[in-house]
Design goal:
This protein has about 200 residues and is mainly beta.
């Protein structure tokens, strides 16, 4: 099968693009507005894009559903130039899902999801204290993408928090916290099993 994204065949009633590009890590982005009010929202278009210095990217596609407002994460980053990427464990699935709702600006998703805030060391934005890891970031660049209200945010990681209960023999062991990953449609995956490979020339 081949098709043009602008002309999806009727045999595919739901767009399979995100199901094909999967699993994707979830960037659970915390920000504050200029009044200091916290916001927390998950983004499935997220990844690391560099390591010297460490850089991350996430993007939003479209406005809030049912609310005529810019996404709070983007609005707040424009105002403060800071954000935190929190990582989602299987244990935090419900809290992440609660924070995915489109609340009006100024609502605190930390409180709504029953999450305790951790105090960042470098940026003024709180992080999810129960998260297995969190990146304190400063805005590097905002990119307007083609299409219907798509924006990408590139950030430089200035500080890294790791929950030490997930370090085993000096390794950050993802099998201990079981990262939640986004698939297509309404589906998610939990990472529990690993395989290790060496490059042939290593």
């Amino acid at each position: 099968m081949f098709y043009n994204p602008d002309n999806r065949p009727s045999s595919l009633p739901h767009d399979p693009f995100k199901a094909i590009v999967s699993p994707r890590p979830i960037g659970w982005i915390s920000t504050i507005d200029k009044e200091g009010r916290a916001n927390l929202a998950p983004y499935s278009f997220f990844n690391a894009i560099g390591d010297k210095p460490p850089m991350v990217i996430f993007s939003k596609t479209g406005p809030k559903l049912g609310v005529n407002e810019e996404k709070d994460s983007i609005r707040n980053i424009r105002e403060t130039g800071e954000f935190v990427v929190n990582f989602v464990s299987f244990e935090l699935t419900s809290e992440m899902n609660i924070s995915s709702q489109h609340f009006k600006h100024g609502e605190d998703e930390f409180s709504l999801a029953g999450l305790e805030k951790g105090r960042s060391q470098i940026v003024g934005v709180p992080y999810v204290k129960k998260a297995p890891a969190a990146f304190e970031c400063v805005l590097h660049k905002e990119l307007k993408l083609p299409g219907d209200d798509q924006t990408a945010i590139i950030g430089e990681v200035k500080g890294i928090h790791i929950n030490e209960e997930y370090i085993r023999d000096g390794i950050f062991d993802v099998t201990l916290y079981k990262p939640l990953a986004r698939l297509g449609y309404r589906d998610y995956a939990v990472i529990e099993n690993l395989i290790s490979l060496k490059r042939p020339d290593d």
